[in-house]
């Protein structure tokens, strides 16, 4: 089955903060049907970060023909989960995840404790008929000894409790082949994030090729400092071999959606996501 193309709402974070209803309507007009939210205020807002009650949010999505297929939840805390899961159940969303909350990993013992927590959260989600997924950046492709942090996370979490949302851009920027990772974890990948890397980027593609020391503890301050806004371009207009990733995804039995995401753009955000939608039409194996 072709991958359904959706959008991570972080791509329109500035526009949506001012008028979420108008932005959701525009997304639908552009042709997007599937959305993933990014809630960085779960402590005060258990939903999708817009401050809207679940019923109003559900009605808005239904009005514009949109379906929510996931949401990043930060901070990810056990005491917040009941309200978060209740909200998303009202929307019909069965998947929540985490992204960048747990850096730096520091040492193997800390990493294993985080994995225990991921398993616990996954169990709480499963009890509610939902799935929990882990989203990567480039930090997971550092090493403890001979093993990648990402592989250790997969090895120390229960595959029935902790799934993967593989961000192919960040995997590539961690010096990895995203297509190989997709095939390696084909049974656990349930969402793909797709960004693109510009041909005229000042940084090398691999962040460990002179941008960040491979052995350095990467905390949020460092991550934001080295994350170059000009290291992103409209998806389908850059240099990443996206067709290879789509073809690798054919091996994934639980994968239905590929979500376009752009962290930064030189353009108006709404113009940017329209260009990405049009550029993505050239790829085979996707449904727009």
TrEMBL record:
Keyword Isomerase: yes
Record keywords, A-Z: Isomerase
Superkingdom of origin organism: Bacteria
Protein name: Sugar phosphate isomerase/epimerase
GO molecular function, one term: isomerase activity
Matching InterPro entries: IolE/XylAMocC-like, Xyl_isomerase-like_sf, Xyl_isomerase-like_TIM-brl
Domain Xylose isomerase-like TIM barrel: 24-218
Pfam families per UniProt: AP_endonuc_2 (PF01261)
Keyword Isomerase: yes
Organism taxonomic ancestry: Bacteria, Bacillati, Bacillota, Clostridia, Eubacteriales
């Amino acid at each position: 089955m072709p991958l359904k193309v959706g959008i991570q709402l972080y791509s329109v974070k500035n526009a949506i903060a001012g008028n979420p209803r108008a932005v959701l309507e525009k997304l639908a007009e552009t042709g997007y049907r599937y959305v993933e939210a990014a809630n960085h205020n779960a402590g005060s807002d258990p939903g999708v970060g817009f401050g809207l009650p679940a019923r109003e949010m559900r009605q808005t999505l239904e009005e514009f023909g949109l379906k929510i297929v996931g949401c990043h939840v930060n901070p990810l805390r056990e005491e917040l989960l009941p309200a978060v899961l209740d909200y998303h159940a009202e929307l019909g969303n069965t998947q929540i995840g985490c992204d960048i909350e747990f850096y730096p990993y520091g040492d193997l013992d800390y990493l294993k404790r985080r994995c225990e927590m991921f398993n616990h959260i996954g169990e709480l989600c499963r009890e509610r008929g939902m799935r929990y997924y882990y989203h990567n950046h480039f930090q997971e492709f550092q090493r403890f000894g001979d093993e990648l942090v990402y592989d250790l996370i997969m090895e120390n979490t229960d595959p029935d409790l902790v799934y993967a949302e593989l961000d192919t851009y960040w995997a590539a920027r961690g010096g990895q082949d995203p297509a190989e990772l997709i095939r390696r974890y084909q049974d656990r990948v349930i969402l793909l994030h797709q960004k693109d890397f510009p041909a005229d980027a000042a940084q090398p593609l691999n962040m460990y090729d002179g941008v960040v020391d491979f052995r350095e503890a990467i905390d949020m301050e460092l991550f934001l400092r080295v994350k170059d806004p000009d290291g992103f371009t409209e998806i389908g207009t850059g240099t990443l071999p996206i067709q290879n990733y789509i073809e690798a995804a054919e091996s994934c039995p639980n994968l239905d959606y590929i979500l376009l995401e752009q962290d930064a753009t030189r353009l108006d955000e709404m113009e940017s996501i329209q260009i990405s939608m049009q550029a993505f039409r050239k790829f085979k194996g996707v449904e727009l």
